[in-house]
């Protein structure tokens, strides 16, 4: 790549103090590290949580509301305050900031994803620090990315980062829950996401934020498939971002991926938002997963959603497991008419059918 790029993600718990307020001194120290990286010739993208927390502070609300409109209103107020804080703290270093707000729709549609990628590229070319967050003011549950861990992984893909760093309120991934097990050991380097690694990641443990170690491991899966290392570390350790970029042992390094997926297939596997799904029989599953074949109507048992040609579609086996994703070569409406049919039978049910596969193998990613 022409220049070194680092994506830094900061979580709500790291960004806020014990009262749940945005910690300006922490932000200032983080921006000082960003300035040093830029002085070394690196470009930085910041993925930040904290909009809702900042909004709750501005509104004087002690607890997190349970209804979506109140959360979205808090995000609308807090996003302004959050960006102002970053802008003020970067101004001392001569750094300009630009806001990029994304939803699953923005990254789930291929053209929108490319537009977002181009925007980030241009901001970096202009020497601007992109500050990225999920657009919580419009993202209802159906289109939410869910947490900024996953968003940061997608941003890492978009800008072809050399490294992604997650600043958290714990030191990294341990072999047991350090809050419950006194002699839990930090895992310094994870080269493969085994069942044991996934099991020790546990679930969501944060009250302010929406991500836990489980979401960080899922983000690691995306990045390892893209061949991008991820460091999960204690965000309040002095110079932790500088040390992580320098390759010093801080937190947990997830690295071992060989860039197994690239370009459109990487997007399809992890960013493309399925417009529907198809359930396939075991014979079709073997043809896709073991023999590299395309998906034909004969292997389809069921169809859900209302996808059209070119839409991302999830492919499930009879147990409901998503085994692949692909771009539809036929609409859901037409596929319902011909599912389970042999090729010779289809023309009578669908006049004018041109022999197009349900999903061609060139537009298919096995998961």
Summed up:
This protein is α/β, with parallel strands linked by helices and about 375 residues long. The protein is about 40% helix and about 20% strand.
Task: Describe what this molecule looks like in 3D.
The protein is an alpha/beta fold and 367 residues long. Helix content is 39%, strand content 18%. The strands form two sheets. It has an eight-stranded mixed beta sheet, with helices on both faces. A five-stranded mixed beta sheet has the order 10-9-11-12-13, sandwiched between helices. A hairpin with a 5-residue loop joins strand 11 and strand 12 (322-327).
Low-confidence stretches: 203-211
Number of helices: 14
Most strands sheet: 8 strands, mixed
Q: What is the CATH homologous superfamily assignment of the largest domain?
A: Acetylglutamate kinase-like
The count of domains is 2
Helix content: 25-40%
Note the overall shape.
elongated
Strand order in the largest sheet: 3-4-2-1-5-7-8-6
CATH architecture grouping of the largest domain = 3-Layer(aba) Sandwich
Order of helices and strands: EHHEHHEHHEHEEHHEHEHEHEEEHHE
Which fold name corresponds to the CATH topology of the largest domain? Answer: Carbamate kinase
């Amino acid at each position: 790549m022409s220049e070194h790029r680092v994506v830094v993600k900061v979580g709500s718990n790291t960004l806020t103090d014990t009262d749940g307020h945005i910690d300006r001194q922490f932000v200032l120290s983080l921006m000082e590290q960003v300035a040093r990286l830029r002085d070394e010739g690196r470009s930085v993208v910041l993925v930040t949580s904290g909009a809702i927390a900042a909004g709750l502070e501005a509104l004087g609300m002690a607890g997190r509301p349970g209804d979506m409109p109140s959360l979205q209103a808090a995000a609308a107020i807090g996003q302004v305050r959050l960006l102002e804080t970053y802008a003020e703290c970067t101004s001392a270093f001569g750094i300009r900031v630009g806001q990029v707000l994304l939803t699953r729709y923005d990254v789930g549609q291929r053209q929108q994803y490319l537009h977002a990628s181009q925007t980030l590229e241009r901001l970096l070319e202009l020497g601007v620090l992109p500050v990225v967050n999920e657009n919580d003011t419009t993202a209802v549950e159906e289109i939410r990315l869910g947490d900024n861990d996953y968003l940061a992984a997608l941003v890492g893909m978009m800008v072809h980062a050399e490294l992604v760093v997650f600043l958290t309120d714990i030191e990294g991934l341990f072999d047991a829950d350090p809050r419950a097990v006194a002699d839990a050991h930090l895992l310094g380097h994870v080269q493969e996401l085994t069942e044991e690694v996934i099991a020790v990641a546990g679930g969501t443990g944060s009250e302010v934020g929406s991500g836990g170690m489980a979401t960080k491991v899922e983000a690691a899966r995306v990045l390892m498939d893209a061949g991008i290392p991820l460091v999960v570390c204690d965000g309040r350790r002095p110079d932790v971002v500088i040390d992580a970029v320098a390759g010093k042992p801080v937190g947990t390094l997830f690295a071992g991926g060989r860039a197994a997926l690239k370009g459109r297939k990487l997007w399809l596997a992890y960013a493309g938002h399925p417009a529907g799904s198809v359930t396939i029989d075991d014979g079709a599953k073997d043809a896709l997963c073991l023999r590299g074949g395309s998906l034909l109507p004969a292997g389809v048992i069921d169809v859900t959603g209302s996808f059209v040609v070119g839409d991302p579609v999830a492919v499930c086996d009879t147990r409901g497991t998503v085994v692949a994703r692909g771009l539809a070569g036929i609409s859901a409406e037409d596929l319902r008419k011909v599912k389970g049919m042999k090729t010779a039978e289809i023309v009578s049910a669908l006049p004018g059918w041109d022999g197009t596969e349900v999903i061609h193998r060139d537009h298919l990613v096995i998961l």
